[in-house]
Write a structure and sequence with these properties.
The protein contains 19 helices and 2 strands. With 343 residues, it is an all-alpha fold. Helix content is 71%, strand content 2%. Strands 1-2 form a two-stranded antiparallel sheet. Its main location: nucleus. It comes from Candida boidinii (Yeast). Residues 11-30 are annotated as: Disordered. Pfam families: Nucleopor_Nup85. Residues 11-29 have a biased composition (Low complexity).
Length: 343
C-alpha cells in the first residue's frame, strides 16, 4: 500500500482518490471566500482613502492624496496598454506614436501622474531624433515638460495664487501653440502624422489650462474627471462639489459599485449614509469611523434630527421614504459611537 505525507498527515492513496473531488471543492470554496474578503476590504480602503483626503489629511497633502485615491482605486493606464505603446513598434521613435500622446501621456496627466508622464516623454526618443536648434516640435515638447515639472502639489495646495500663475503659463503656451507651429519652417510640423500628434499635445495643454470641456471629453469616469478638475481648474476644496456635479452628469457612477457610490456620499456630505454603506461591508470599521466623525464634529448637524426622531413616535409600518429609513439606521451608529467614547 502506497502512502504519501502531506502536512504531516499520512494519506492513503485510495482515500486520496475517493476524496479528490471533495478536497478540490473545499479549496475552491476557500479561494472564493478569500477573493470575496479581499474585494470587500479593497472597497473599504477606497472609501477610507477618500475620507482621509477630504476630512483628515493636512491641506498641503490634499492634491497628492486625491491623486493617490483615484490611482489606487482604478489603476490606469494598464500595463498592457503601456507595453503595447512602448514596446510593440520598434521601427519609429515612441514620441511619433500617436497613441503615446492620445492614450498614455494624456491619461497620466489627467490622473496627476506627473513624474511618470515626464519620464515617459523624456525617454521617448525625441531628443535623439529632433534638432533642438531648428525643430519647433522639439521646443513644444520641452516646453510641455517644463510645464509638467513646475506643477507643485504642496505649494499649490496651500497657495492658490501660485497655482494661478502656473495656470497662466499653461494658457499662454496653449494660445501661442498654433501660431508657433504655423510660423515654423520645420518640416516635422508639416507632416500629417506629426500634425495629429500636435493636436493631441494641444488637447493636453487645454486640460492643463483647466478647460472643463477638454477634461470631460478625455476622461473615462466621474472620479477621473473630478480629480482632473481639481488639479487644473482650481485645487480648492470649496469647489469639489461643483466638480462632482459636472463629472457625474457626464459619467454616472456604476450603481453596482459600493465604493463609488459611497465616495459620492462622502463628497456630498452624507455621512450617515456612508456609515450605513460601510456597515454592510464591515460593522467594526463603520463603528470606528463613526467615532472619528463624532470626534471631528462631522455628525453635529444630525443632532437635532436625532432628538426629533427620539421625541417622536416612529412607526415603521407607515409609509417611509428609503432615505429617511437610512437616516434612522445610521443614527444608530452615531449613538453607538457615543457609547464607545465613554470609558
Amino acid at each position: 500500500m502506497i502512502t504519501i505525507k502531506l502536512k504531516n498527515e499520512e494519506l492513503n492513496n485510495s482515500n486520496n482518490n475517493n476524496n479528490e473531488s471533495d478536497d478540490s471543492g473545499s479549496i475552491s470554496a476557500a479561494d472564493d471566500d478569500d477573493d470575496e474578503t479581499i474585494f470587500k476590504y479593497e472597497e473599504i480602503l477606497y472609501v477610507l482613502n477618500l475620507f482621509s483626503s477630504i476630512k483628515f489629511a493636512h491641506p498641503i497633502e490634499r492634491i497628492a492624496s486625491l491623486s493617490s485615491w483615484v490611482n489606487r482605486a482604478d489603476i490606469q493606464p494598464t500595463n498592457q496598454l503601456v507595453d503595447e505603446i512602448l514596446n510593440q513598434n520598434k521601427t519609429i521613435p515612441v514620441f511619433k506614436n500617436y497613441k503615446f500622446w492620445s492614450l498614455l501621456i494624456k491619461k497620466l496627466i489627467l490622473r496627476g501622474l506627473f513624474n511618470e508622464a515626464i519620464s515617459a516623454i523624456e525617454t521617448s526618443g525625441f531628443k535623439d531624433s529632433l534638432d533642438p536648434e531648428n525643430s519647433t516640435f522639439y521646443l513644444i515638447i520641452t516646453d510641455l515638460i517644463s510645464i509638467l515639472k513646475s506643477y507643485d502639489f504642496i505649494r499649490f495646495s496651500e497657495n492658490l495664487e501660485l497655482f494661478i500663475e502656473w495656470k497662466k503659463m499653461c494658457v499662454l503656451l496653449r494660445d501661442n501653440f498654433w501660431r508657433i507651429g504655423n510660423n515654423s519652417n520645420d518640416n516635422n510640423t508639416q507632416d500629417s502624422g506629426i500634425l495629429e500628434i500636435l493636436n493631441q499635445i494641444y488637447e493636453i495643454l487645454n486640460i492643463l489650462s483647466g478647460s472643463s470641456n477638454y477634461i470631460l471629453d478625455n476622461s473615462s469616469t466621474w472620479y477621473e474627471s473630478l480629480l482632473s478638475h481639481y488639479l487644473y481648474s482650481m485645487p480648492s476644496i470649496d469647489l469639489i462639489r461643483e466638480y462632482l456635479l459636472v463629472s457625474r452628469n457626464r459619467f454616472p457612477p456604476d450603481q453596482t459599485s459600493i465604493w463609488e457610490n459611497t465616495c459620492i456620499d462622502i463628497l456630498e456630505g452624507n455621512y450617515l449614509t456612508v456609515l450605513t454603506s460601510l456597515e454592510y461591508l464591515d460593522k467594526p470599521i463603520a463603528t470606528f469611523l463613526g467615532v472619528l466623525l463624532e470626534a471631528k464634529g462631522l455628525l453635529k448637524p444630525y443632532d437635532d434630527l436625532d432628538r426629533n426622531i427620539n421625541d417622536s413616535e416612529y412607526d415603521l409600518t407607515d409609509d417611509v421614504d428609503i432615505d429617511e429609513l437610512n437616516v434612522v439606521i445610521a443614527l444608530g451608529f452615531k449613538n453607538y459611537s457615543q457609547l464607545v467614547l465613554v470609558y
